[in-house]
Amino acid sequence: MVASGREGKSGVFSADLPFKCLLKRSAGPSRSLGRTSLIDFTQNAGAGGREQLSRFAGFGIGLASLFTENVLAHPCIVLRRQCQVNYHARHYHLTPFTVINIMYSFNKTQGPRALWKGMGSTFIVQGVTLGAEGIISEFTPLPREVSHKWNPKHIGEHLLLKSLTYMVAMPFYSASLIETVQSEIIGDNTGILECVKEGIGRVIGMGVPHSKRLLPLLSLIFPTVLHGVLHYVISSIIQKFVLLILKRKTYASHPAESTSPVQSMLDAYFPELIANFAASLCSDVILYPLETVLHRLHIQGTRTIIDNTDLGYEVLPINTQYEGMRDCINTIKQEEGMLGFYKGFGAVIIQYTLHAAVLQITKIIYSTLLQNSV
């Protein structure tokens, strides 16, 4: 959420990892590849041609993963959030089968825009998150990266930087959340920069009128930062662990001296993508109940109208009256049961199944291209 994935991703502020991975893969000579075709690459049999093809492949693989996380998966994010904030719902949509059915109903009654609403604002939140982190680290001694020779103080300062970043992006995330769950039926078409306007308005207390049930930003800081930091920590640990296992497995299965050029290129890119995929999946699953609570707190008092996720048509108002994080947890547990924290979980299954399929298809395509070029 409040980034990551990630939003990608799925988590609140988990979006920084995919962008960083893509930037690493696109790094190379300053010469533009814009007009260079695959034919030119494959015809160049020299080492320079293979190196260019390797960089081109890495950029394409990273771009495909990024596109899947932020575009193709967006309908899953929309439905997932609508289910999470819908305390009226009798159907929890814990499996992908009911999620697909309700997606079809929304598309039939409201059109494709109902499933891709708010996508522009999610990119804005990711940009604000990355920009805020860079600016804060530039003007403070807080480190953006944790070195191999880390110590508790260094880690604490790094997590403090993340916490401050999540605090800065929080009002914009609230605005983005509203855009993704607000029903298209009410016909309130917002501009792409509406998220920025609403976020600033939330901070200064101006803009669209809110009800008295709206929780102040100070009350949202703790759950927002808690979710963001936990998502980042869990993702980082799992990513490092999975990457270490994959590298050891790769080295054991085919030592460097016996590795083909094709396998070397694939080994250079896919382990990191797979590790990032596993990290996002695990952190989203582990923190899903906390994310449900967080979304309900952010949406309360904003006069948001959501789609009826039981019927696939009609709309419902959000009229919750939670006093804070603890009250929200206790209320969900009493009125909706423990499974109430997992409303819309079927959308997560679809989201990561789709992502895994795209990664596999991309790997097959680039394996074929690389084999034909060697």
From TrEMBL:
Solcar repeats (start-end): 267-369
Main location group: mitochondrion
GO biological process, one term: mitochondrial membrane fission
Classification via Pfam families: Mito_carr
The entry's keywords: Membrane, Mitochondrion, Mitochondrion outer membrane, Repeat, Transmembrane, Transmembrane helix, Transport
Membrane topology: Multi-pass membrane protein
Compartment(s) of residence: Mitochondrion outer membrane
Gene Ontology CC: mitochondrial outer membrane
Xref: InterPro entries: MCP_dom_sf, MCP_transmembrane, SLC25A46
Function: Transmembrane protein of the mitochondrial outer membrane that controls mitochondrial organization. May regulate the assembly of the MICOS (mitochondrial contact site and cristae organizing system) complex which is essential to the biogenesis and dynamics of mitochondrial cristae, the inwards folds of the inner mitochondrial membrane. Through its interaction with the EMC (endoplasmic reticulum membrane protein complex), could regulate mitochondrial lipid homeostasis and thereby mitochondrial fission.
Family (UniProt): Belongs to the mitochondrial carrier (TC 2.A.29) family.
Subunit structure: Associates with the mitochondrial contact site and cristae organizing system (MICOS) complex. May associate with the endoplasmic reticulum membrane protein complex (EMC).
Protein name: Mitochondrial outer membrane protein SLC25A46
Natural source organism: Molossus molossus
Lineage of the organism: Eukaryota, Metazoa, Chordata, Craniata, Vertebrata
